[in-house]
Amino acid sequence: MNAPFAPTRETFRIAELHQPDEAARIEGFVAANGGTVFHRPAWLLAVERGTGQRATGLLAERGAEVTGWLPLTEMHSPVFGRMLASSGFAVEGGVLAQDAATTRGLCRAAQELALRLSCPTIELRGPAAGEGWAVRTDSHCGFVQPLAADVEAQLLAVPRKQRAEVRKGLAAELEVATGTAPEDRAAHYAIYATSVRNLGTPVFPRSLFDAVLDTLEADILTVCHRGEPVASVLSLYHEGAVMPYWGGGTHAARALRANDRMYYELMLHARRRGCDRFDFGRSKAGSGAAAFKKNWGFEAQPLSYASWTAPGHEARDADPTSERHQSRIALWKRLPLPLANRLGPLIARGLG
């Protein structure tokens, strides 16, 4: 009589992302299981090159089969402390697994890894399972909508009030350019740095944007007025969707409706690239940014975020809307732009 079949035990280990074969194997799992661009090893490695924060991750396997993946960035910050983020500098991520048991196993392995690395906090831009996790579904929302079939249909898909703003932008004396050349990157960073300083937020290092542009499917769309860049956005492309990710505008952009023109032109540009969805990214629930996206006709979809804090430690607070950071934000808004651009990357590389 034959012995009964013993199923292969599932194991968990740290992935070797700098091994091309390992990274390619994980990329295949992400693509086959509907993962986001932020689940990709390519994203983690671009973040590592651009910020110095170490790319890592946990792999679940059953024999030769990958059954789960948790992308992680090991964050170090003199201001905000140490943590594991899934994924670093991302708005999505978290566990990608084939069943609930694997999800629990990866979450437990992440807790063990965090303790070994002296990281008292884990933040997952996605759900978690198991003991000790705090899960929120009311803090952020995502906004995704299909792209229309042609130029006219895309304009008509925009609600009437917002469509009037887009038409003003179309009537203005504006030029639109797309690309990844040095001049595109320089214009984008100058506008983005100014925009986030005005919001009281430290700017990310330019090396992060360069690494993402050099590694992933991404480009920059810039709107100019009489040759002067006034609005610009760096967008990511993944599985048929475009996501305007890092964007901003100057003070002049508002009167010119340059931001409205920018997002409309990006919709047309993405459709020409073969995209069928516009992912407006995440916004804090109830924020002005969320209201802006709703004005475009996008419906808010709650996002699930999870966090874990090691016993005996306080929960990490890097939320820009937190009361404890308001005085810092007010001070940052008053900094001269050259000083903000010099200090900002040193702080922002640790935000995650």
TrEMBL record:
BioF2-like acetyltransferase domain residues: 163-294
Domain of life: Bacteria
UniProt-listed InterPro entries: Acyl_CoA_acyltransferase, BioF2-like_GNAT_dom, PEP-CTERM_FemAB-rel, PG_Glycine_Bridge_Synth
Gene3D superfamilies cross-referenced by the UniProt entry: 3.40.630.30
Protein name (Swiss-Prot/TrEMBL): FemAB
Organism (species): Aurantiacibacter luteus
